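Q: I'm writing up a methods section and want to include an example of the input and output format. Could you take the sequence below and give the corresponding predicted structure tokens, formatted cleanly so I can copy it straight into the document?
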Amino acid sequence: MVFPLLTSCSSPLQDGGWICSWGAPGTDDGYFNLPHNINLHPDGDKVRLLRIPPALPRSRVCVDSLSNPSCSPCLHPDGDKLMIADRENSRVQIFTLDGAHVASWCYHRAVSVAAGPDGTVFVAEQVLMVLVVLVVLVVLLMLLMLLMLLMLLMLVMLLMLLMLLMLLMLLMLVLLVLLLLLLMLLMLLMLLMLLMLLMLLMLVLLLMLVLLVLLVLLLMLLMLLMLLMLLMLLMLLILVML
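A: Here is the clean output for your methods example:
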């Protein structure tokens, strides 16, 4: 939302009535954000009060012809200009007595401005906020450093866990390889045993065949012997009969 820079002034009054007001919320020249005290005339018969009207809070300067001892004088040393501490915009704005913007001075959260009798201008800055901000920044930096340290520790722990997992995986792989080698050795031994058993069986079979052959030969010899004996008996019988 854009607010118009309102300026309206009446003729000077000395009976406590309204004299002048100007400004609108913003950061440009002539705009305000929580302005502070003013003083228009050194003789004190016109203004010593800064009032923020309810319709435009924190953004507009209203000048009343009512004395207010709590306000610091902020008349420019030239005597014809008004200095206003524009705190939230971190500056001091200088106006003519009719509300025309002349210049702006940059100060951190200026809360009050005054001019000495020798023409020296004094500006009160709200440095507590700077300290608070610095402390908050330092605390935030420390928290960030702690978080970074915690993250580094977590990363180191994760790396250590990963290394342990890798070592465990390597050990498991080595164990698996050893088991496979053992299984292969056992299979080889079993194969060798099977081969030996087969060879023994073959030998036994060969021996049995040899024995069978021998038995057959013996039987054949016996049969031949019996035949011979029969022939001899027959021959003897023939001889006897003759």
